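Example 3.2
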Amino acid sequence: MPPFRFPFTATRWQVVTYLLGVALFSISFLVFLNSSISFVITERIGQRSRVGDAVGTLGFADEALALLACPLWGMLSDRVGVRAVAVAGYLIVGVALAGLVMSKNVYPDLLLGRLAFSLGGAATATMVTAILPSMTLPVQGSRIESRPLSSQANGHNVTPSISSELTITPTRYQSSSSRQESRDGPIGETTDASTSQLAGLVGMFTGLGALLALVVFLPLPARFQKRGATSGEAVADSFFIVGAVAIVVSLFCFVGLRNLPGEEHKGWSALFGKMKEGNKYDGLPSSSENAEDEQLQLSYLHLLGTSVRLGVQDTNIGLGYLGGFVARASSVAISLFIPLFVNAYFISSGICNPDPNTPGMPADPGEVKRRCAQAYVVAAKLTGTSQLVALICAPIFGYLSGRYTRFNVPLLLAAFAGIAGYTAFGLLKSPDPSSEDGTAGVYFIVALLGISQIGAIVCSLGLLGRGIQGGDAALDRAMQSNGTPITSPSLAPSSRRDSVAAGANIASTVLNESSPLIPSHIRRIQLSPHSSRARLKGSIAGIYSLGGGAGILLLTKAGGVMFDQVDVGAPFWLMAGFNGLLFIVGVVCSVIEWAKQKREENFISWQRDMERESTPVDAGGGG
């Protein structure tokens, strides 16, 4: 029986820490705080009026700061490392949770505590995306293969091949490529599949984190009250315990995320200055051609600008950004606007009447429970069904996005489900399946919403991972034509004479065993720190989180206005439009990818023809 192969370049302990530490708790503390912040205002501070206004202001300030903090944390992680930022983020979250219940007033005490929590939460959310490529990213300059699980039991990182790209010869490269393909499939496909499968697990563990908050963290005040504590003491004790859990998670990440692949030369010493003398990028030796680049440290502005520019230049990264925008907006549509839609139906139908002292729609979704228990039950069933389906489908989308990497079929499927689901929900006459106008088909509709949300999350994470790895994987794919380095199709010779000359040069490279595999002009590009997208993974994750935060703010503000002034179903039609945009952009990117692949295939075929024409024919007839 063949040994089980560990599909990641990270160790088992690092992957476990990432899933059970970073991914599991990235959202659980936020769910706990959002559900409990009103109790801090009423039970700890003692404010009984304008609670909804205070909660809304604190939530808006949280998201506004997160929009700025996410890209900043991402760029910082490209200097100091993703481990340092994850540890700092959970540590800040723990301290902020403890500080919140010691506030004496809403402004400025509680506001400052909420901003501190937002700062830490932005770090943890960004690192969910930034750490993902480190789990599966091949070390540049070596050929890392899937290894038996037993070989990683000692907890050490995967050791790069002893033959670097600088010394490996065409014959040796060709033989190693053949062995790799025969064992694990074409180069790059194994890594792509691992990234997508891990993204599916990340989506599942994120959902489990929200469930952990609902099942374990939120009931803590009630349990403490049963033991004799006052309501204020129960809230304080709950926040202290959850804050302590965040600090424990921080320590867990500090130990478990040590020596991540690709993080070897990062640290707080590189926060402002250049790299220390002697540090090398990607573990590659110095050469006169890149010695100057090795001492270069990318500025924060360059990191940010390059990450934004990659979203335009690379279809995977750009589509990943857009998928993150839609995914985060979907979370608001499900958790905020479904309860408001249900409440509006019960009020308009006369089943539940609003409080005469505070007429109108409630500003806080939590008010639904107080105003009308039946509306709360229906809303809980619908949102619960949606999130349960999302939790079940997370690993399924992880498998599909790894299995069908061409043309982004799983992401298009998720976007189509969102178009159909949100359009249908916005047109519902009644969200209550037991009412006269209701139907049990509403559960199918909210299931489509869950599929759309988790599909956008998982596929966008997988696209970002593949986009970050795309720079190196593209070079690998380009060198699979008989071990020959291939230049860009746009640089193809324009005349027959240039074509023959280029073929002769290629043939001489292949036939010369002592020559390096990669010509110097290509080798400089590969070894330059500016060309390694792995060095930008934190900044890319920051832009991804920035797009998600923008989706939340846009849908919250625009959807709220449309809910009041247009129709109660308008926010869902807006979400259908977001998914429609994602679907159209996904189709366009698929067409671009297909055209690019055809162009590369034609160029490779042309190059092989040039090789055959330039190869001397044996006059003896091969006897």
